[in-house]
Amino acid sequence: MTTDDLSTPLGQNTEPRRRRRLPFTGIQVIAVALGLLLLTFAGVALFHQDRLGGEPVVRVTLQPNSADKDTTAPAPSDAAKPSQPAAKAASNPPANGQKTITIIDGSSGARQDVVVASDGSDTGTDTTSAVMSGINARLLEKSRYGMIPIAADGATPFTAYAAGTPEERAKAATMPTIAIVVGGLGIGAAKTTESILNLPGAVTLAFTPYGSDPAKLVARARGRHHEILLQVPMEPFDYPDNDPGPQTLLTTQSPDQNLDRLFWHLSRLQGYVGLTSFMGARFTVSDTAMQPVIREAAKRGLGYLDDGSSPRSVAGTLAQGQTMPFAKADLSIDAVPTSAEIDKALTKLEALAKTRGNAIGIASSLPVTIERIGNWAKTLESRGVLLVPLTTAMLKSKS
Questions:
Q1: Is the overall model pTM greater than 0.85, yes or no?
Q2: Which domains are seen in the chain, by residue range?
Q3: 349: left (phi over 0), alpha (psi -120 to 50) or beta
Q4: 213 — pLDDT class (breaks 50, 70, 90)
Q5: pLDDT for residue 68
Q6: Strand runs (DSSP E) across the chain, as ranges?
């Protein structure tokens, strides 16, 4: 003990204490962690064999075709298994309830046809056969988008898919008649199905080309004796703020471009008697834009309905020049979508039919519209007016 130690007051030792330090800094810890993370990603990228690279994968249950099994063929070698088809392509057409799909190997480009079971939907029948039920194969032509209608051997889609019997048409010639077209169908299976089931069979249904499976809904509607129109999206005055949808026919496009878009719409479903516009107030007043469309529709044996929304529409004049079936709607039944106003419109339609012998109304597929039309139609014939499909009204008007 030194003198200084004795003379220094307690608690006043000013010698600093030594602090313990870690052998590395916080920045070094962060740098090492980032390095390990990068090494992990690099390892996964180099050594993880994922040919799809994280792409979404869909698994389907394959159903082998028993007729094509080859019990004598040797098993493929292990080296060929990843890239070569392990089963023969089906040589026979698939049976009902089945579909044939082609699988292409991403690494080798090898193709393999396999047969898969169809879901059958709500009816338990094959989707493909149901969709094509009643479609005349002679009235179909292949396009870049699929099959589209065409006139052949003196037959046309307008006559082939017209509803009603000769007896019903003869009766219509002696009575005032009304045709009603309900449009906007195909988008929303529930709404479309309600229209199909609850509207009288004489009501014509107009389908847009959109929706997940419009062709299947059309087949169901035709099974309930509804006539079908295809609604072609056309340019309205406030386009593109008001956009009818993909592949809209535009006044700024060339005739060839619009016809190419028209073919896309024509291929979306089959069994329709004619066309009508979906929106289209600007397009239908342009002679340059409408003329190629009307000419093409007439060549393919289709009719055309002008929805009456544009007073300056040139569709009627152009259709007359092509001698194609044509009609123009007289009024919109549910322009004001209330029960009272819809009933007034239907009464007005009756008065027009009794005055002129024929009247045509258009409507949307609102629940209130479907209900009022259904109730109104039950007693219509007792008042001396007949509800008829659109083709009957078109032919009666022309005669």
A1: no
A2: 78-117 (no CATH), 135-398 (3.20.20.370)
A3: alpha
A4: confident
A5: 44
A6: 98-104, 111-117, 140-143, 146-149, 177-185, 204-207, 228-234, 274-279, 303-306, 326-328, 331-332, 358-364, 386-387
